[in-house]
Amino acid sequence: MAQPKRAVVIGGGIGGLTAAVALHQAGARVTVLERAPSLAPVGAAISLAPNSLRALDVIGLGATVRDLAAWQGDGGLRAPDGRWLSRTSAAAAQRRFGGPLVLLSRATLIGHLAALLPEGTVRTAAEAALADPGDSRRPARVTTPDGELEADLVVAADGIRSAVRRSLFPGHPGPVYSGFTTWRVMIPLPGVRFASHETWGRGRIWGTHPLKDGRVYAYAAAVTPEGGRSDDERAELLRRFGDWHDPIPAVLAAARPEDVLRHDVRHLARPLPAYHSGRVALLGDAAHAMPPTLGQGGNQAIEDAIVLAHHRDDLAAYTAARLPRTTAIARRAVGVARLNMLRNRAGMAVRDTVLTALSKAGPALFLRGFDDIADWRPPRPPYASVGTRETGDFSRDAHG
């Protein structure tokens, strides 16, 4: 495939915008089509690990994100009564992975990505459909309410319900229910001090983390039948988590019903055969939707975007670089979901005992399971963690 002169990105989320920026910086004329009336995402935060921060370094945004974000500090896993099951050390994680884990609002990241694109690149309220994936002899075609666009490359970043994925792989079963639903809250919580934590109970989890702007990001998950809803989701959270340790009661007291977002979790249980067809490439949830239990959904979308821009002339190389890695991480996320959503009391007791033992053995042992996720490097340098005294020498060859 010749180097794309015209790229169309379907979806203006984090993965789609990262791809748009990377392709623009590579010389492509890019159009982003977002069906929502604006780019502003519904209130939530995103945790970025060293792997995605290195990817953002490639487009010149990593340092800004590190400066704007809250660096996730010491904390760990707790039981509902407040007992610590394991403690984590931010310093140990940074030394091991060559960079910090950070947290910032999705809206902040979206805004900074969009600011790197030329004016007029992003079209909102723009429904798009793939009319023809194209091939080596003809361009791809995308239809919009304003007419049809031809493209040398179409990037499908249209989320877990991806219409482009269904068009390219009509025999694929699509996403399945992961067995649990999630709630998210992002609110001010003045005067309340706490250590970042995730708390594992019986078929339920809760996490609370401070943001740099003074707000708190909290999330919860519980095993429930698919499609369940409550007239007052704050009251539902209070029913399920109101007797858990501080600061959970304080978060629930400060939240309003309209502050609480809820959605069922779904993932692609069967991997796609490829992440491309013709001149179309899938990325993010459209390619490999996974449960949020490793905090890697958005991180992997960012990785996808940088690798796709690198392999823009050879989409088979993009698939070869991304499909094995994301499939392995998605499977691990499903496994972690089974672990932290355990409802069998005997199984929970064993789980909690093992977590405590790992923590006492040292943070490095507990962090080891994240090694091959966080130590990823983009296909071209430079990035901030290379060869610094603070992080050690990470100058070995990058991989896609």
UniProtKB/TrEMBL annotation:
Q: Which GO terms describe its molecular function?
A: FAD binding; monooxygenase activity
List each copy of the FAD-binding domain by range: 7-310
List the keywords (alphabetical). Monooxygenase, Oxidoreductase
Under the heading InterPro entries, the entry gives:
FAD-bd (IPR002938), FAD-dep_Monooxygenase_BioMet (IPR050493), FAD/NAD-bd_sf (IPR036188)
Locations of Basic and acidic residues compositional bias?
390-400
Q: Where is this region: Disordered?
A: 378-400
Q: Name one Pfam family in it.
A: FAD_binding_3
Q: Which PANTHER family match?
A: MONOOXYGENASE, PUTATIVE (AFU_ORTHOLOGUE AFUA_6G14510)-RELATED
Tell me what this protein is called: Monooxygenase
Please tell me the species this chain comes from.
Streptomyces glaucescens
Q: What is the lineage of its organism?
A: Bacteria, Bacillati, Actinomycetota, Actinomycetes, Kitasatosporales
